Amino acid sequence: MIAFLKEAENIKEELITIRRDLHENPELGFEVLRTSQIVKDFLKKEGIPFCSFAKIGVCGIIKGEKDGENKTIALRADMDALPIQDRKKCLYSSKVQGKMHACGHDGHTTILLGVAKILNKYKKSFHGQVKLIFEPAEETTGGAPIMIKEGVLENPRVDMIVGLHVTEDLDCGKIKVRKGTSNAASNPFIIKIKGSGGHGAHPDDTIDPIIVAANVITAIQTIVSREVSPLASAVITVGSIHGGTAQNIIPEEVILSGIIRTITNEDRIYCTNRIGKLVKGICTAFRAEAEVLIEEGYPCLYNEDDAVDRVRKSAEAILGKENVVEQQNPSMGVESFAYFANERPSAFYFLGTRNVAKNTDKPAHSSLFDIDERALPLGVAIQCDIVYEYLTKK
Q1: pLDDT band, residue 386 (cuts 50/70/90)
Q2: pLDDT tens per residue, range 117-174
Q3: How far is CA 91 from CA 83, 94, 361, in A?
Q4: What is the pTM of this model?
Q5: pLDDT tens digit sequence for 72-110
Q6: Which residues form the Peptidase M20 dimerisation domain (predicted)?
Q7: 156 cis-preceded (ω within 30 degrees of 0)
Q8: DSSP assignment, residue 300?
Q9: Is pLDDT at 1 greater than 80 in this prediction?
Q10: Does residue 387 contact residue 73 with C-beta atoms inside 8 Å?
């Protein structure tokens, strides 16, 4: 049996160096040019062949050299950062104005590079293949569907895929995972409400779209509170309101934008259909007009039972059974790994990085987010063990 945790601890300083470099130089969306090149250079140095997908995404492949069943397992990491100003005071704060790794993707990329290094070292001890998928644009439209369309899960065909995400709501040294739905689906929307503008002193000569918008915002919340089962979960968020130019002018138009989050396909279909009907009904009642655009967004992320069992077994071997926690409820956050999960049996789990003493308890997508870097070798060891167990045992 390979001591993966020891192997990962042996490269801990290298992992920290890579992660901090990525953290200092964040890139957004499909513009992860530097990050992608770092991944390619690392794989090239380790002698691991790779190819590009979605222009800037990378997929490395390590072929086991032991005779046996020809299975393929994939591991995925996302590479992109967020448009947030880094306000942490530390040696590795972002050097790029208005950009920051505020969701831990620098850690995900680093962990997968560490996995690549160790598994390549031991490729004579397993059969089959492991694909190392580095995805761009997870925070925006997702590189996953493009990579899938271009064949990242084929040639050789992936039989199972695993992903992880760091989380500040779980202590470093623990993971959490659950069977079934792990993350919600999303449907971003834009609502344009068209009225008739005029002088604020004469509202009777206008159709005030701000008043209509206020009623729309209140009413669409009743879809969740009164139409979706209280035993289910759904969230409708209006994140922005734009309308008007001055205190004494009633505008002609108000634009609302937001997102619908659901954890079942049935509720997803219901909520997207219902919001359009409700908005148009309210606007008709107020003599206004409405345009409702609802995007498809990310699907629900579903964890397959056997894949979760494999994650648990490996995590227990690395961390101890007491440190493998059941994720009680699905996260209402969305995750582009869901596209991969829709195609193959999969498991997606959360790696704890919280440490109050190190200030790594700040929420993701905030300007103070950081991770306890002790989690890096733990993530590497768990991922290595998952792959090794899958490619050496039935």
Answers
A1: very high
A2: 999 999 999 999 999 999 999 999 899 999 999 999 999 999 999 999 999 999 999 9
A3: 20, 9, 18
A4: 0.93
A5: 999 999 999 999 999 999 999 999 999 999 999 999 999
A6: 189-279
A7: yes
A8: P
A9: no
A10: yes
* Rounded CA separation 177/163 (Å): 11
- d(C-alpha 394, C-alpha 392), whole Å: 7
Pick from 120, 145, 144: nearest CA to 130:
120
Chain centre distance of CA 85 = 20
For 106, the token pair is 């620098």
Binding residues, as ranges, are: 103, 105, 139, 165, 365
Would you place residue 69 in the very low, low, confident or very high pLDDT band (cuts 50, 70, 90)?
A: confident
Secondary structure letter of residue 114 according to DSSP: H
Q: Can you tell me the distance from the alpha carbon of 21 to that of 219, in angstroms, rounded to the nearest whole number? A: 47
Binding site, annotated residues for Mn(2+): 103, 105, 139, 165, 365
**Residue in the structure block whose two tokens are 């140095």:** 45
Beta pairing partners, 260: 187, 236
User: 205: how many CB neighbours lie within 10 A of its CB?
Assistant: 11
DSSP element (H, E) containing 99: none
| Domains (range + CATH), the chain | 4-183+300-392 (3.40.630.10), 185-294 (3.30.70.360)
Supply 187's token pair.
């449907």
Tell me which residue has tokens 């991944």. Answer: 39
Q: What share of the chain is helix, strand, coil (3-state, %, to 5)?
A: 35, 25, 35
